[in-house]
Amino acid sequence: MIEKQLPHDEPYIANDVYLDRDSQQIIIITGPNMAGKSALLRQTALITIMAQIGSFVPAESAKIGLVDKIFTRVGASDNISLGESTFMVEMNEAANIINNISERSLVLFDELGRGTSTYDGISIAWSIVEYIHEHPRAKAKTLFATHYHELNEMEKSFKRIKNYNVAVKEIDNKVIFLRKLVPGGSEHSFGIHVAKMAGMPQSITKRSEAILEQMETANRRQGIKKPIKDIVEKREGYQLSFFQLDDPVLSQVRDEILNLDVNNLTPIEALNKLNEIKKIVKGK
């Protein structure tokens, strides 16, 4: 569809996508706006659907297994009639995805978390990617396009997460979109360049560049480090401790266990305590 709308002298850049459950389950895709991240997600979804119905697909070759569900969180929208913000709609859709994934699902996230503050967004995006990776059964194949470059750190600690970016070239302070998906994460969003292309007044873009340089310099000088190692080491993944669950019965069980003096407990007392805990769980 994109190819049909391109000028005759501009070739469409094709891209390969490889996902499996063993080595490359989740791909984090970074790169600037307009580089082609969303097109890549849509291409993957459409080709998968076409393959499922037995159609020819626009590719030199394709090997696609059975897919039971395709989940997408793409685009920004609000629901004014129900009083739901863009972020609430995002979270509703993301929750629906997370609660229904299976081992044969294909999941596509585009800029998840952009409807809230930066740190909130990064935290939610990281947790969702971690949850999908650590799920004991599903291992759903996932493409996750994002501007949160912090997520590139996940590749170091999660064996089935891989970083890719949609390549660009910067020549004479101008950005050229190469539209090619290449291994590795991107560190720049080129948002100001895109603003220039959109016709933003020069005074605004110049001021933006000055502010950006000032903020990046301050960041480097203060030596702000992301606590990535701590985040990874403290993860619990899908199998959350039941002591974290907001359930009064489980809270009571937790309190009973925490108040036990294990070192001075006789076998009979231990069995009696276990029986008491069993009654709490059964509601007796």
* Percent strand: 5-15%
Tell me the strand order in the biggest sheet: 2-3-4-1-5-6
Cα-atom radius of gyration: 24 Å
Secondary-structure element string: HEHEHEHEEEHHHHH
The tally of structural domains comes to: 2
The helicity comes to 25-40%
Question: How widely separated are the two ends?
Answer: 63 Å
Tell me the CATH topology of the largest domain.
Answer: Rossmann fold
- Note poorly predicted spans: 238-244
Mean of all residue-level pLDDT scores: 84
- Backbone shape: globular
Name of the CATH first level of the largest domain: Alpha Beta
CATH architecture group name of the largest domain: 3-Layer(aba) Sandwich
What's the name of the CATH homologous superfamily of the largest domain? P-loop containing nucleotide triphosphate hydrolases
Q: List the total number of helices.
A: 9
Descriptive overview:
This protein has helices spanning 2-5, 37-52, 86-98, 118-134, 191-197, 202-222, 228-233, 248-258, 267-282; strands at 26-30, 69-73, 105-110, 141-145, 161-171, 174-183. The longest helix has 21 residues, at 202-222. Helix 4 (118-134) links the parallel strand 3 (105-110) and strand 4. Helix 5 packs antiparallel against helix 6 and helix 8 runs antiparallel to helix 9 (267-282). Residues 238-244 have low confidence and may be disordered. It folds into 2 domains: 2-188, 3-Layer(aba) Sandwich (Rossmann fold); 242-282, no CATH class. The chain has a 6-stranded mixed beta sheet with strand order 2-3-4-1-5-6, sandwiched between helices. The chain is of the alpha/beta class. It is globular, with a radius of gyration of 24 Å.
